[in-house]
Specification:
Elements lengths: L1 H41 L1 H5 L3 H4 L4 H29 L4 H31 L6 H27 L1 H15 L5 H21 L8 H23 L7 H20 L13
Length: about 270
């Protein structure tokens, strides 16, 4: 009876640990939405006003806040991969490492964009005229161009993330298969738009862009919500396997532990 209770407790502990992992990863996914969307609007004075660096619009605090949101977005993107790695490596370690690496790349590229925006705010000189003003405007144009490319490439990496994590989630069945299917469909669509943009045959805001972005948006939002509020499916093979392994370890430990109050066989040292 004691062994059965211990095994049950261990299994419950394993499932509880998995639930915490899903919760952390899900919350981090949702934080990427809560930080990335307002960041674009808060940074609009820099992105839309070519004379911001010499204009003195008084939007410095707003732009800095937008940059802070982008920093949060970068860190939470990396955090999702770190949180999930211990679980998804059970399914495919190579894909799991690829997912972590792609998230690191995404976060790094986004941080380059943040540095570009903050550099414009730092170099701002309201009232500058003549050659100095012309130079500052050119600097802003350059830094905004860098930021725009980091935004395209940094937000394009989720297409690779969707393929890697989507495949793992589809095979492992940790979440309903309909969710990773959306990511697996969106991955090639969004990749095609990124390639088209790099080649100069499409622009942001086009129908092609919308068709490419929509599945990735739905995929990341869906998996974030599911992991936050539902966790991993308990009947998924990885969940059953993890619980069985922990229970087996507990049984071995219990069997090797000497029982209190039981006489030691005669002749034992």
């Amino acid at each position: 009876m004691a062994n059965a209770n211990q095994t049950s407790t261990t299994k419950g502990s394993a499932l509880s640990s998995m639930r915490k992992t899903a919760l952390v990863a899900g919350v981090l996914y949702l934080l990427t939405f809560l930080s990335s969307i307002p960041a674009v609007f808060l940074q609009s004075p820099v992105l839309n006003d070519p004379l911001f660096i010499i204009g003195g619009t008084g939007a410095d605090t707003q732009v800095r806040l937008g940059a802070l949101f982008d920093i949060v977005n970068s860190l939470t993107a990396i955090g999702t991969a770190v949180a999930l790695y211990a679980v998804i490596k059970r399914q495919n370690q190579g894909f799991a490492i690829g997912f972590v690496s792609s998230r690191l790349f995404e976060g790094t590229v986004l941080m380059i964009g943040v540095i570009s925006i903050l550099s414009i705010v730092t170099l701002q000189q309201p009232g500058a005229t003549g050659a100095e003003a012309s130079l500052l405007v050119s600097i802003q144009h350059t830094l905004v161009t860098v930021r725009n490319w980091t935004f395209v490439l940094g937000t394009g990496v989720p297409a690779l993330n969707a393929f890697l994590l989507g495949w793992i989630m589809y095979k492992s069945r940790l979440v309903p298969r309909a969710i990773p299917v959306i990511g697996l469909i969106g991955a090639p669509l969004f990749t095609s738009w990124i390639v088209g943009y790099i080649m100069g045959v499409t622009e942001p805001g086009t129908a092609w862009h919308g068709i490419g972005v929509a599945p990735i948006f739905i995929w990341e939002l869906s998996i974030g919500l599911w992991m936050t509020f539902k966790g991993f499916r308990k009947e998924a093979p990885l969940m059953v396997e993890a619980a069985a392994e922990d229970a087996s370890v507990a049984d071995v430990a219990s069997a090797s532990r000497p029982s209190i109050g039981v006489a030691t066989p005669a002749g034992a040292a």
